[in-house]
Design a protein that fits this description.
By secondary structure, the chain is an all-alpha fold. The chain contains 4 helices and no strands.
Length: 127
């Protein structure tokens, strides 16, 4: 049985591990998206995919690094907001580039990222 699935572990420990793993996965997928943008896309699609990849990589890296440090629920909520925000933002921008979908969700994703970072800053300031 893996450590994450162990119900005896506190929820916060499992959440930190999950967020860190998802952050690393997000960063890896962002590298693949950037490679696709560089080698298979042109023009505006290439620029949009590169932007989506940059946001996904930076925030994935941040999640992987910060998740193990989150000690309070507010810190975990902040990181979860960042994750949801980058999925909405980068997903919306990539969806527009790949399938012509509207970028309707990008502003909500951006607001979640901003709010998540501000909440994370407040959480870290508290100690």
């Amino acid at each position: 049985m893996s450590g994450d699935a162990d119900p005896r572990l506190p929820l916060q420990v499992r959440a930190r591990r999950w967020l860190g793993a998802v952050g690393s996965t997000l960063a890896g997928l962002a590298v693949a998206l950037a490679a696709y943008a560089a080698h298979a896309a042109d023009g505006e699609a290439q620029a949009r995919l590169a932007q989506a990849a940059a946001f996904a990589f930076g925030h994935g890296l941040a999640l992987a690094a910060l998740a193990p440090l989150a000690q309070r629920r507010s810190g975990l909520v902040a990181l979860l907001a960042i994750l949801l925000g980058v999925l909405l933002f980068s997903g919306s921008v990539a969806g527009a580039a790949l399938w012509g979908l509207p970028t309707t969700l990008a502003p909500f994703g951006g607001m979640l990222m901003i709010g998540g970072w501000l909440l994370h800053g407040l959480d870290r300031w508290r100690g």
